Amino acid sequence: MDRAVRDDAAWRKSSWSNGSSNCVEVAGVWPGIGVRDSKAPAEPMLVLAPESWTAFIDAIKAGAHDLN
Predict the structure, then answer these.
(1) What residues pair up with 29 in beta bridges, in sequence order?
(2) Nearest Cα to 50, choosing from 62, 34, 33, 30?
(3) Before 31, cis peptide (omega within 30)?
(4) For residue 7, what is the enclosing H or E element?
(5) Residue 64 region by backbone torsions, left for phi larger than 0, else alpha for psi between -120 and 50, else beta
(6) Burial 30-61 (b: 16+ CB within 10 A, else e)
(7) For residue 63, pLDDT beyond 70
(8) Which end of the chain is more exposed for a tag (fewer CB within 10 A), N or C?
């Protein structure tokens, strides 16, 4: 991913983070959804296709992942 694209993206943390630095951030980046570690924003990020991101979020909402 181009550094300028990563740096210009509008990153946001989950509302579940409660201000903690131990969380991930997400942003819309071409060609999909970027996911990065909030403690290491300059490190590589994961980019998911929009349909993969939607499937991931749907699985979380359905309780398929232990978030505790």
Answers:
(1) 32
(2) 33
(3) yes
(4) helix 3-8
(5) alpha
(6) eeebbbbbeeeeeeebebbeeeebeeeeeeee
(7) yes
(8) C
Q: Model confidence over 9-62: pLDDT tens digits?
A: 899 987 777 666 678 899 998 889 999 988 888 888 899 999 999 998 999 889
CA pair distance 33, 65, nearest whole angstrom: 19
* Cα Rg of the chain (Å, integer): 12
Q: Which amino acid is at 14?
A: S
Conformation bin of residue 47: beta by default, left when phi > 0, alpha when psi is -120 to 50: beta
The secondary structure element, H or E, covering residue 56 is helix 50-61
Residue positions counted in the chain: 68
Q: What is the pTM of this model?
A: 0.74
